[in-house]
Every structure is written in structure tokens, then in C-alpha cells.
Design a protein that fits this description.
The chain has helices spanning 14-25, 40-44, 47-64, 80-99, 101-105, 165-168, 188-199, 219-232, 282-285, 320-336, 364-370, 385-389, 418-430, 435-439, 450-463, 466-476; strands at residues 4-10, 30-34, 110-113, 115-120, 123-127, 133-143, 147-149, 180-184, 203-208, 235-238, 242-248, 251-256, 261-264, 266-269, 273-275, 289-290, 293-294, 307-309, 349-351, 356-361, 375-380, 396-401, 408-415. The protein is α/β, with parallel strands linked by helices. Helix 1 packs parallel to helix 10, helix 3 (47-64) packs across helix 4 (80-99) and helix 3 packs parallel to helix 7. The radius of gyration is 25 Å and the shape is globular.
Length: 491
């Protein structure tokens, strides 16, 4: 008899860890199957190593530009091998503290090591490295196998040494720090790594088929970020797809459709991610999928009512926090029988460059296409006292909201701590908190979060009409000026 479980979770990344943890806390006998180390992309190839590298690069940059704080600029000799070893040590620390199998086994979860594939809709085979295979059965199954770097069909790519996020942080990725790095892809990963390597002393060129970086974000803010990164030394070749790559004598030539070519010592592909569905034998389980990933509804349910899928494998959201959110939705629906759906209206995302770029809710383009009436309220970091004291005045807070009530429809933030500020807007939108409510709420001074209140104040300013002022003057005999503020005035 194969082991029987209430819940089988396939995949031990962010979504799988959350699903297994929630399931066992609901009293379900739970198994989690992972073919590599627990922690998945976030711990090993994504969030943790990339943000650790960004921090090291920021420290080097701050030392070189210390004169902006009245100190002396310092020449920084980067120990690249030491930096990368530090990145790997942080990965291990996170794994040891949060992702080790023993942690989940102590919670009562059975952790299975090996490759998983379906035998039928309730049975999963686990193939181990030693060649043995064992089958497990489950009442409910959660697919959380994540995604892998997408490698585009570029002519000559099979003859060139290149890196992806899966290899970038490994010991054999670089024999030494590359003098020149070509980054193919101007999305979040490519943009973050371009700044990190530039600040560490590498000449970086970013190529992309789109005509701007981070195309899902506010175009005004992405343009400002691009100009900032260019000021630090990042070069961009945009608007044409990479057609061909070639390598000779250790040098890589990257050629774009428009004829532009880039010479580099190393190349990073940051061209998106593809769902990990190969090898799962989803057909045997009757689970529908496409090239984008496993098809799920808003309850994270697949074409089989007892099988759910969460995170990157669904192709819907490529964020760790959404993997966690979807895991909660899936397990709640499966075990508690309580209808719960994905909160697709309030999905925040952040690109962790310096300055950071964050967004939640509707974009101006989406609102315009829907014919939604809204006003846009802005507050620049150059008028935020905390930003001024820390010399971090590059940035802007932008909020789309209804004019009458101040209901927030979408928000974008470019600037220091944007990831924290966008959380305030996400919480507000989720719970119906308006700009009026935010403006009436006491915020500590001089905190970064005061910027959220200051942009809310702009709604109050725009609601203050000259007619209302004149009425007050007539009623109470006031003699002051009648001010009229334009939509671009910052108060």
C-alpha cells in the first residue's frame, strides 16, 4: 500500500512551503515532494541572492560617493569572489533558519526527496536519485513546481557561454569579475543586476526588444529610473530584439536586429521565466495546462477539483508574495471548504534597484482604456524631509484616485523605501481607505511613510476651491488671499 495523505504538495519553493505549512496547521496529514533543496527560486536563485548582491553593490557605491554626505569619497577595491561568497553564505543562512527539511518534519510534514510525476489524479510517483521509485496517494494535491529561466531562440546561443539566474550565483559562474557584461532583458531581473554589476565596477550594457525598461510600470517613472541608471554608467540598447550571438577568443558579440552590436566578456539572459510542467505527466491526472503553465481558476483549482496549483507554475504571477497568497487560497478552499479567491486587484510589485520602483493597482493606461474617471496626485521626494536628510531625493509618489471621494485606484512609487511605501497603498486599497482617510491619519515625522500622507494632502489641496474660500470669507469676515492651486502644484 502506498502512503496515504490528506494533502500532497509537489514542490518545495515559496508556494509549496506555505501550502504544506498551512495544511498541517489545519490538521491535515501532509507530504511535500522536492527534487532539489527546499526554498526554491526565492532562496537559491532569486530574491535572497539578488538582494544580497544589490546591498553589497550599494555599500561600494556609497563609499565612492561619500562626499554627498560631507565625507571623503573612497576608492573601493572590490573583492568579487568575496562578494559572491558572501551572497552564497546568506543563502545558506536563510535556508538553515527557514527552509531545512527538519523544520517541516518537526511540524509533522513528511518531506520526500525526488522527482514527482502523476500516475493518476490521486497518485504521485517519487523517483529518487538512487533509482528507486515509490508512490504516494493524496486526497488533495497542490502543484507548486515554480518556473525556470526562459532561454529564447537566439541564433548562435548554443555556442556561447551565458548565465541565467539559476547559474549566476554559483561558484563556477565566473572565474573572475567580468570587465564587460551584456544583459539581455530590461525587466526587473535584468535591471537589478545591471545596477549591481555596474556599481561593482563592471561595464554593463542592457539589450531589449522593447523601447523602454520595465514595460509593466509607469512610463514616466521608468524613464526617470533609466536616466538615473545611465548616470551611474549603465548603457542601453533598446527597441530591437537580439538576433545573434557569437563567441571568439573569450569575447562575446551580441547583435540586435537594428544592427547594434555589443562586445562583452560575459552575458546574462534575463528574458523571463517558463513554468515547470515538463515531466509532471499532467495528462495522467487530467490536469489542463498550456505553454504558459497549469490552468487554474481564481480559487487556484485546476481542471480537477481536488488538484490545485499555485505560484509561478500557473504562469499568472511571478512574485514570491503571490505564491504565498495563492497557497493560502488553495489550501483554504481545499480543506476548509470556504470559498476564497485570489486578490487580483491588489497585487503589489517592486523592482529593488536604488531607487526602488513599486506599483499596485490600476495603471493610468488601464484606467484610460476602461474609461474610468480619475485624477492623478503627485508628491516628489525632493519635498520629503526624510529623503532630503538622507540625500535620497530622486523619486516621485504617484496616485490615481477618484476626485470626489479620494478612492485609490492605483499607485506607483519611485524612490528609496518604495517597497515599504507601496505596502501602505496596498493595505489602503484592500480595505477601502481613501486619500481623505490617509490625510486625516497622524504619520510620524520625519519617517519615509510621511510621503504617503503628503501625497494624500494633495487631494485635499485640489478639493479646496476658490469658491469655498470666498464663502468662508463672507461667513466669518476673513481677509486673506484667495488661493487657487493648479493640478501640478505641490503643497
Amino acid at each position: 500500500m502506498s502512503p496515504q495523505y490528506d494533502v500532497i504538495v509537489i514542490g518545495g519553493g515559496a508556494g509549496g512551503l506555505s501550502a504544506a505549512g498551512i495544511a498541517t496547521n489545519f490538521g491535515a496529514k501532509t507530504a511535500m515532494i522536492e527534487r532539489e533543496a527546499l526554498g526554491g527560486d526565492c532562496t537559491w536563485t532569486g530574491c535572497v541572492p539578488s538582494k544580497t548582491l544589490l546591498k553589497a553593490a550599494k555599500v561600494a557605491h556609497q563609499a565612492r560617493t561619500a562626499s554627498k554626505y560631507g565625507l571623503t569619497d573612497q576608492d573601493v577595491e572590490v573583492d568579487f569572489a568575496g562578494v559572491m561568497e558572501h551572497v552564497r553564505s546568506v543563502r545558506e543562512e536563510v535556508y538553515h533558519d527557514a527552509d531545512r527539511p527538519e523544520i517541516f518534519e518537526d511540524m509533522g510534514i513528511d518531506v520526500w526527496e525526488g522527482d514527482a510525476h502523476f500516475i493518476d489524479s490521486h497518485t504521485v510517483a517519487v523517483a529518487r536519485e538512487d533509482g528507486t521509485t515509490e508512490q504516494v496517494t493524496g486526497r488533495y494535491i497542490v502543484i507548486a513546481t515554480g518556473a525556470s529561466p526562459l532561454v529564447p531562440p537566439i541564433d548562435g546561443l548554443d555556442t556561447v557561454e551565458y548565465q541565467t539566474t539559476e547559474s549566476l550565483f554559483e561558484p563556477d559562474a565566473f572565474a573572475e569579475q567580468p570587465d564587460r557584461l551584456a544583459v539581455v532583458g530590461a525587466g526587473p531581473i535584468g535591471t537589478e543586476m545591471a545596477q549591481a554589476f555596474t556599481r561593482l565596477g563592471t561595464d554593463v550594457t542592457v539589450l531589449d526588444m522593447t523601447d523602454r525598461i520595465l514595460p509593466n510600470d509607469d512610463p514616466d517613472l521608468t524613464e526617470a529610473l533609466r536616466e538615473h541608471l545611465e548616470g551611474e554608467g549603465v548603457r542601453y540598447v533598446l527597441g530591437n530584439a537580439v538576433e545573434q550571438v557569437a563567441q571568439a577568443d573569450g569575447s562575446i558579440t551580441v547583435t540586435a536586429a537594428g544592427g547594434d552590436s555589443v562586445e562583452a566578456d560575459a552575458m546574462l539572459l534575463a528574458t523571463g521565466r517558463a513554468a515547470n510542467v515538463d515531466g509532471l505527466n499532467l495528462e495522467a491526472a487530467g490536469v489542463e495546462y498550456s505553454r504558459k503553465g497549469v490552468s487554474v481558476d481564481d480559487r487556484c483549482r485546476t481542471s480537477q477539483r481536488h488538484i490545485f496549483a499555485v505560484g509561478d507554475v500557473t504562469g499568472r504571477y511571478q512574485f514570491t508574495h503571490m505564491s504565498n497568497h495563492m497557497a493560502k487560497i488553495a489550501v483554504t478552499n481545499a480543506l476548509l471548504k470556504m470559498p476564497s479567491t485570489i486578490d487580483a486587484k491588489h497585487v503589489p510589485w517592486v523592482t529593488y534597484t536604488d531607487p526602488e520602483l513599486a506599483h499596485v493597482g490600476a495603471t493610468a493606461r488601464a484606467l484610460d482604456e476602461d474609461g474610468t474617471s480619475y485624477d492623478t496626485y503627485r508628491f516628489p521626494y525632493s519635498k520629503l524631509d526624510r529623503a532630503i536628510t538622507e540625500g535620497e531625493t530622486t523619486g516621485l509618489i504617484k496616485v490615481h484616485a477618484t476626485s470626489l471621494t479620494g478612492k485609490i485606484l492605483g499607485a506607483s512609487v519611485l524612490g528609496a523605501r518604495a517597497g515599504e511605501l507601496i505596502t501602505s497603498f496596498t493595505l489602503a486599497m484592500r480595505n477601502g481607505v481613501t486619500l481623505r482617510n490617509i490625510g486625516d491619519t497622524i504619520h510620524p515625522y520625519p519617517a519615509w511613510g510621511e510621503g504617503v500622507r503628503r501625497v494624500a494632502d494633495q487631494w485635499f489641496v485640489q478639493k479646496q476651491s476658490p469658491t469655498f474660500t470666498k464663502v468662508l470669507q463672507t461667513l466669518f469676515g476673513y481677509d486673506g488671499p484667495v488661493l487657487k492651486h493648479g493640478p501640478d502644484d505641490i503643497i
